[in-house]
Amino acid sequence: MSASFPSVRRVRGRAAQVGEALRNEVRKMRRGILGDVANQKPRILNDYRDLLWSLIPLLLICVVFAALAQQCSFSPGKPATGNIPHFDVTSALRDDAHTLPFPIRQPSLPDRWTANSGSRDTVTGEGGGTLSTVGYITPEGTYMQLTQSNASESALADHILQTRSPSGTQKVGERTWTVFHVQGNEPAWITDFGADRVLIKGAGNQSAYMTLAGAIDAAQPLRS
Q: For the purposes of burial, counting CB atoms within 10 Å of the CB of 187, is it exposed (0-12), middle (13-18) or buried (19 or more)?
């Protein structure tokens, strides 16, 4: 029994050494943490130079937005128009009259109505046909579309406005136009000339619609 005492004392000595080593490590860690905290300056102690540096990015953003705003302009009443593309509407409609199997008319419009575009399209399915379309810029700077076709009225309305249900009629001179209007779209007026249908629509006001409708009604079919 007495021979085991030295072994017990050695174990206790080693345990004491390990414990002391652990306590030393803990003390070092605590000093390191407290030192880091002490080196960090609270926000409330930041001087005016720190505040100035933090404001510089915000000031740069404000300068960029101000520069962009100077490049924009606001013109109440009507849109600003640039150069209108040249489009030979006479040649285009004469070519359509020669090529397409239905009458084509060229409206005689007031000064400053400027043709700017033209195209052909096809309506497929029941009541379908070919479309001849030209576009005009009105004196107010708005766009008006003139489409002539041998498609039926309902097929034409469905192709242009995705609806076959009329919302009313409009009388221009002796001719009656059927009005189709879908929420969110410009209204379309369609009239039946017998061998063909004519559609007008666009961003113009009531006067622009009346002017274009009256001009196409007065026009004679071009020679094919």
A: middle
The answer, yes or no, to whether residue 30 has pLDDT greater than 70, is no
Cα 167-138-177 angle, rounded to 5 deg: 25
- Comparing 13-17, 22-26, 38-42, 117-121, which segment has the lowest mean pLDDT? 38-42
Q: Which of 147, 139, 214 is nearest to 176 (CA)?
A: 214
The tokens describing 75, both together, are 């013109």
Q: What are the φ and ψ backbone dihedral angles of 93, each rounded to 5 degrees?
A: -70, -35
Reported as half-sphere exposure (CB side, CA atoms, 13 A), residue 124 has a value of 0
Which of 141, 157, 154 minimizes the C-alpha distance to 205?
Answer: 141
How far is Cα 109 from Cα 208, in angstroms, rounded to an integer?
Answer: 10
pLDDT averaged over every residue in the chain: 81
Q: Which of 163, 88, 90, 157 is nearest to 129 (CA)?
A: 157
Taking the model in full, what pTM does it have?
Answer: 0.64
Distances (CA, A) of 82 to 79, 88, 117, 186, 211: 10, 19, 15, 22, 23
Query: What sign does the CA torsion over 46, 48, 50, 56 have?
Result: positive
